[in-house]
Design a protein that fits this description.
Shape of chain B: flat
Distance between the termini of chain A: 10 Å
Structural class of chain A: alpha+beta
Order of helices and strands of chain B: HEHHHEEEEEEHHE
Radius of gyration of chain B: 20 Å
Oligomer: heterodimer
Number of strands of chain A: 21
Radius of gyration of chain A: 20 Å
Strand content of chain A: 15-25%
Structural class of chain B: alpha+beta
Largest sheet of chain B: 5 strands, antiparallel
Helix content of chain B: 25-40%
Largest interface: A-B, 85 and 61 residues
Number of helices of chain B: 6
Shape of chain A: globular
Largest sheet of chain A: 5 strands, antiparallel
């Protein structure tokens, strides 16, 4: 694993915009950063990243299966009780999951360590799956890249073809989320699905309890770039439960609320203690397993509300509004330092398969929403 | 190989090129695949005029080749037929249908994309070679809810500002971004 500096393509902004990639800057700073790229050997990719991601995904599915038979786990994850049955039914019915992203700390030498699983609303999808690939094809067409994400995504979405219109949704006011949803819609259209966009805020309910779009078309299948824990707090939360009972399909499916929760980190550690790709992790009320550790809210995102404890003392804390459901603790694992850049390796699961890598790097140790996406090659 | 050999976008790129990929307002709202104008009109999603225009746009995008070999290379053995126009002969793939897209919030149609056989003969592709999987059920059946009597009658029956909905806006706890 190496980091290389390189001159960006002179016209990369135009290329990005021609391909619908309009969020290449975020918060006034560059987000797509092709002034550098990482290179990996095939062995590093296959043995150190691809296989561990596939293995940990299998461990996650086992955990879901267990949670569906053990209310104590659902309670531990702070999932509200009215949603338990939906999560269980969804798992028993094999509701289709299309994607998820594991974040690993990997330095090219030691085993990659799982930091977290973005199981419900993973972002950086378009840039990982498509724009990174386009970059490679234009600059290094003879080199390889760990990336068949789009193919696998289309395979997964093909399952919804022939079942009528599928709605796709994000919240208003975020260009990046909207673009991610457009990209998933694009893949779905390529897989033969009839697609339609609606903002979450515009969804309505008819007198018969069915969800309706702005043209009063019934929503039977909804892809939502909208976390399950928001739905728990929404006025329509109970309508989702009732709708699901009446056949509403949701993507990501209800069983993903079990995995989209930092509580899986201690649960995985308890079940696979000493696994080379896992860090010791525990619930905040339990005895610490390490002197230096990170505290993360059970339900948090974008690096918010994360605490850093050194030798038992709180050393730093990122801002955030999360944490009311409780915290988990995870042994501190520094991100590797490449010329003062700290990369996180995002390993994609699509259609159940470990199928791609997207690297986000930051000038700080905790990756937040100011990280930059940097492409990679396999040498 | 760990990378995909071929990838395309059928909506995002096309929308951007048409100058309408605004994040908030005017992106592809809805796409449906139709075999022809009749099927498009029957779906109730577009007017006759829109359907005729979309089929015409798709025909106009159909690539032309000087030789049969070039056409076959991109679209397969059975798809290519010789055409003549203005004294010249050329080869074109058969148009099997088109993918209709609609803009958000209005009824105006985005540029339709023509669909052709792919070289291996087991699916559709666009004029530029982007793969498109054929739907498993005929479009008419898939869009039935849109043309149900209740939906059609809706505009005149509306008494609430929500349309047929008894409420709207029950999602979104504060419009937070979703990054994770």
């Amino acid at each position: 694993m190496q980091r290389h500096s390189i001159a960006p393509r002179a016209n990369w902004r135009e290329i990005a915009e021609q391909n619908g990639f309009l969020f290449h800057h975020a918060h006034g700073q560059i987000y797509w950063d092709e002034s550098a790229y990482y290179s990996f050997s095939l062995t590093e990719i296959e043995e150190q990243l691809e296989d561990p991601a596939q293995e940990i995904y299998a461990m996650c599915l086992e955990l879901v299966d267990e949670a569906c038979r053990d209310d104590e786990i659902l309670k531990k994850l702070a999932i509200p009780e009215p949603y338990w049955d939906m999560a269980r039914q969804s798992w028993l019915k094999h509701d289709k999951s299309i994607y998820g992203r594991f974040d690993f700390s990997y330095n090219g030498e030691d085993p990659a360590k799982l930091l977290e699983f973005n199981a419900d609303t993973p972002t950086s999808l378009y840039e990982s799956a498509f724009f990174q690939w386009l970059w490679l094809e234009q600059l290094f067409p003879d080199l390889d890249q760990f990336n068949s994400i789009q193919e696998k995504l289309c395979d997964a979405l093909g399952a919804f073809s022939g079942h009528g219109l599928m709605h796709f949704s994000s919240v208003k006011g975020t260009e990046e989320d909207r673009a991610t949803v457009e990209y998933v819609m694009d893949c779905a259209a390529q897989a033969g699905v009839s697609v339609k966009f609606i903002y979450m805020e515009n969804i309505g309910i008819g007198a018969d309890g069915h969800f309706l779009d702005l043209e009063d078309e019934r929503i039977n299948t909804l892809f939502k770039l909208y976390p399950w824990e928001y739905i728990w707090e929404d006025a329509y939360g109970h309508d989702v439960i009732n709708g699901y009972r009446d056949g509403l399909k949701l993507v990501e499916p209800p069983w993903k609320m079990i995995l989209s929760n930092k509580g899986i980190l201690p649960l995985l550690w308890q079940r696979h203690q000493g696994h080379p790709n896992l860090l010791p992790a525990w619930f905040e009320e339990e005895t610490p397993l390490a002197a230096n550790y990170v505290t993360k809210p059970l339900l948090g995102r974008e690096g918010a509300s994360i605490g850093l404890v050194f030798q038992g003392k709180l050393a730093s804390q990122t801002k955030g509004i999360y944490g009311k459901e409780g915290y988990v603790c995870q042994e501190f694992c520094g991100l590797p330092n490449f010329d003062r850049n700290y990369p996180v390796c995002g390993l994609w699961i699509a259609n159940g398969l470990s199928c791609g890598l997207g690297i986000r790097e930051d000038a700080q140790m905790v990756t937040g929403d100011l990280s930059r996406f940097v492409p990679h090659v396999i040498l | 190989m760990k990378k995909s050999k071929h990838l395309s976008l059928v909506l995002m790129g096309a929308m951007a090129l048409a100058g309408c990929s605004g994040a908030e307002t005017e992106s592809a709202d809805k796409t449906t695949i139709f075999k022809n104008t009749q099927e498009c009109v029957a779906s109730g999603q577009y007017t006759q005029e829109q359907c005729v225009k979309m089929e015409a746009d798709a025909k106009a995008q159909t690539p032309q080749f000087a030789t049969r070999e070039e056409c076959v290379k991109q679209f397969g053995e059975s798809a290519c037929a010789q055409q003549s126009s203005g004294g010249g002969n050329f080869w074109m793939p058969a148009l099997l249908g088109f993918m209709a897209g609609r803009m958000l919030g209005g009824g105006s149609a985005a540029p339709a994309q023509g669909l052709y056989q792919n070289p291996s003969g087991n699916g559709f592709q666009t004029a530029k070679g982007a793969p498109v999987t054929a739907p498993k059920a005929p479009p008419a059946a898939r869009t039935a809810p849109a043309t149900s009597p209740a939906a059609k009658a809706a505009p005149t029956q509306r008494t609430s500002p929500f349309g047929n909905a008894v409420s709207r806006g029950g999602f979104s706890s504060g419009g937070r971004a979703i990054g994770a």
